[in-house]
Amino acid sequence: MSPDPTTNPVFDRLFDEAVPALLAGEHRRDEPPVDGGRWPVSVVAVPDPPARDAMAELMAEALVHAGPGHFETGRPDASHLTVRALEPYRDAASAADGITGAWITAMEQVGRTSAPVTLRLTGVTLTASGVMVQAEPVDDAPWELMRGLRMALGPLAWFEDQWQERDIWYASILHFAAPVADPAGLVDWGGRHRRSLDHEVTLDAVVLTRFRYYEDGVGRHMAMEPWHATSLTG
Question: Deepest in the core among 23, 82, 111, 129, taking most CB within 10 A?
């Protein structure tokens, strides 16, 4: 298959960097969240049901090679695309916190000025920390949504301001949190699924959510606990 000129080259770089790490058993491994760590309160977008079903199917296929013990973030109650993370993880974070109202005010401002945005899900890439579904903007609107939220948040955007701006849209369907059972098989599967999807998804709302760790003896995942949804009506 010839290269797709609309594909973000960052996905290719992530795949190329992931392969040797996976084959050497040197992939990163997630841990249940702790205060100050990953999985913060975030503004996310939730894909439509057909997209969530496709992600869950891909996650199940990836798990055949990854094996048990990983965070199953392609599950329907976990599937999302992050627009902006807002703070380090706090176990005590609550929708009743004073700062929550300020976050919601910024989201409502963005909702009044931003129309729904469209992304094209094209396939998967591997990273040193997991498996992602690639999401390609069909125009500049998704990037404008990100920039608009950053401006509306003002000083409350401080957390992500510590790093380079996001340069890809994606949904993580698996976070490595254990040894990968069949690294070569996972690499082969990932390579064959780089262009396995052709699904346009329209995101018409952004959601303020926290994440909670769940382990049920069968699987492990970080489920969303939505606090507030804002429609994109601009």
Answer: 111
Q: What average pLDDT score do residues 3-8 get?
A: 58
How confident is the model at residue 12, as a pLDDT? 95
How far the first Cα of the chain sits from its last, in Å, is 38
Cα separation of 110 and 93, whole Å? Answer: 23
Q: In this structure, is residue 216 part of a structural domain?
A: yes
b/e per residue 2-14 (b: at least 16 CB within 10 A): eeeeebbeebeeb
Q: What is the CATH number of the domain that holds 34?
A: 3.90.1140.10
In a domain, 13, yes or no: no
Q: What's the number of domains the chain is made of?
A: 1
Q: What is the pLDDT of residue 218?
A: 74
Question: pLDDT above 70 covers what percent of the chain?
Answer: 97
Alpha-carbon gap, residue 204 to 232, rounded angstroms:
5
CA distance 213 to 140: 34
Residue 6 is predicted with a pLDDT of: 55
Tokens describing residue 135: 């999401």
If phi > 0 it is left, if psi is from -120 to 50 it is alpha, else beta; for residue 217 that is left
Q: Is residue 133 part of a domain?
A: yes
Residue 7 lies in a domain: no
| Cα-based distances in Å from 198 to 77, 84, 122, 193, 208 | 22, 25, 5, 11, 28
| Average confidence (pLDDT) over 164-177 | 96
Query: Does residue 2 carry a pLDDT above 60?
Result: no
Range of the domain at 124: 30-231
Assigned token pair, 49: 């049901």
